[in-house]
Design brief:
This protein is of the alpha+beta class. It has seven helices and five strands. Strands 3-4-5 form a three-stranded antiparallel sheet. A two-stranded antiparallel ribbon has the order 1-2. The protein is flat and about 45 Å long. The two termini are about 20 Å apart.
């Protein structure tokens, strides 16, 4: 982004078109879209990038795991994967400006305890979901600035 903010009136029009398009299933209303777009502008990104980088989960914006990981690694963070399967994901996260390195494990038992296994994504893509949980926890634990 060039650093120039898009005026609110233009954001409103963009948000309306975004919500109507159906391209971003988590964004159901123009109000949700505009809030995400304002978050993106606050982060120095073009507003439409928010639609790609965030999900709406239980009515709240949540940065996608891949976006967290991209921000984490582009800022100097490192991830060492120990295991990556449909039963368990384990990785150690470190960042030069973060806390001490942290190893994060996600397995089916942990997902069951967190009451996640009833979710269709967990049933269909358990490895992807454990991967995402491992990333989001690791990034938040070591360098939370990348999770915002």
């Amino acid at each position: 982004m060039s650093g120039a903010l898009i005026p609110f009136e233009q954001l409103e029009r963009l948000a309306l078109s975004t919500a109507k398009s159906g391209f971003f299933p988590g964004v159901q209303t123009p109000e949700q879209a505009i809030v995400l777009m304002m978050i993106a502008q606050a982060e120095g990104c073009h507003p439409i990038q928010a639609m790609q980088r965030y999900d709406i989960i239980k009515g709240k914006p949540a940065k996608k795991a891949w976006a967290m990981l991209a921000d984490f690694t582009s800022g100097g963070g490192k991830v060492e994967w120990h295991e990556h399967s449909n039963k368990r994901c384990s990785a150690t996260f470190s960042h030069p400006n973060g806390t001490a390195p942290v190893t994060v494990d996600w397995d089916l038992e942990k997902a069951k305890t967190a009451n996640l296994l009833g979710n269709v994504n967990w049933k269909t893509y358990p490895e992807n979901m454990m991967h995402a949980r491992c990333i989001s926890n690791g990034v938040r634990f070591v360098f939370p600035a990348a999770a915002n």
